[in-house]
Amino acid sequence: MIQEKYRECIEACLACMNACNYCYVSSLKEYELAMLRECIRLDRECADICAFAAEALSRNTLFALEISALCAKACDACAEECEKHSHDHCRQCAEACRRCADACRQMIGAA
Amino acid sequence: MIQEKYRECIEACLACMNACNYCYVSSLKEYELAMLRECIRLDRECADICAFAAEALSRNTLFALEISALCAKACDACAEECEKHSHDHCRQCAEACRRCADACRQMIGAA
Amino acid sequence: MIQEKYRECIEACLACMNACNYCYVSSLKEYELAMLRECIRLDRECADICAFAAEALSRNTLFALEISALCAKACDACAEECEKHSHDHCRQCAEACRRCADACRQMIGAA
Amino acid sequence: MIQEKYRECIEACLACMNACNYCYVSSLKEYELAMLRECIRLDRECADICAFAAEALSRNTLFALEISALCAKACDACAEECEKHSHDHCRQCAEACRRCADACRQMIGAA
């Protein structure tokens, strides 16, 4: 019930979407909001790209390599930003982003 | 790293998205295509609605009840159609749809 | 090249998506950020729902009424929030939301 | 109320999304369905990528170049497939795809 060749990558994208959206919601509630502008923006950006990538891979898109490369790039950018902050949600988000970027690159390498 | 109150519902939506898209791709390859018109259409419809619902719940949407009710309705319709066909991908898709509709309704009931 | 019966509603949804995302980006840059938390959250929410509604209507979704009702509700909520703020982007967003909510309700009424 | 620098590209993406989805719905109703398998698949693929690109550009995505390049590639592929068929919906879809691919490439060139 899933595109087997993309299973790991799809699951990493969906875990990353969840972590980014959790970080987005949590960041919007933080007291010190101004320093989180870029974090909020990148959380949404990365969540939306991961969600798009997961659905595209699950429909066996013809553009799997391009979409995974885009996703890896968004994950790198979001991880880099979140690593600047000490909130738990930022740290967990950065970890999910790094794992997803790795999964995307492994999938591209195996293609 | 996930909206805990929606965890089961998000996971059911994502499993259903995968099953619907797998059924969609597989149906488009079947020899007897004409009898699968509605199945193809509903697979895409349901996959897109499940993907949307999962991301909305993961960002703690203000419209969780409306979106889950929409998702349950789409899942019911897709399950009903897939249950008319004997292909493995249709049968598995129908099961994922029924589980997702249940998870959505449970979440609504608990709200 | 468009579902004629939904043309006005699709166009209002897309205009609203653009206005909400413009308000979202602009709000994240404002000096007084804390008072815009709800505005940012609702801008994204409404933009994502409008984008989803427009694509669903353009594929002649079976769930046009439910999706348009959801969209109208999100537009109302976003307009109500944006009307609390005096920024140009908030005022323009509120207007686009009101127009989109009207277009959705007109479409529902005509169905 | 719109990212001015991306206005033409966003509008071309949304017109292409509508044309692709119209062709998708119309193709699924054609009597000779089997010859349209690839057309149906590419219509959905291209519609979903155009919708994603339009929303990403409207939120001033950091990945405008990558996303526009992906969109141009999907539009080329869909146009190429639709040009094989003589249905009005295929011909109109191919034209919208060519226009969108051009708009994406112009935007990339101007960046």
TrEMBL record, chains A, B, C, D:
CDD domains: DUF326 (cd08026). InterPro entries: Csp_YhjQ (IPR005560), YHJQ-like (IPR044543). Pfam families: Csp (PF03860). It comes from the Bacteria. PANTHER family: CYTOPLASMIC PROTEIN, CYTOPLASMIC PROTEIN-RELATED. This is Four-helix bundle copper-binding protein. The lineage of its organism: Bacteria, Bacillati, Bacillota, Bacilli, Bacillales.
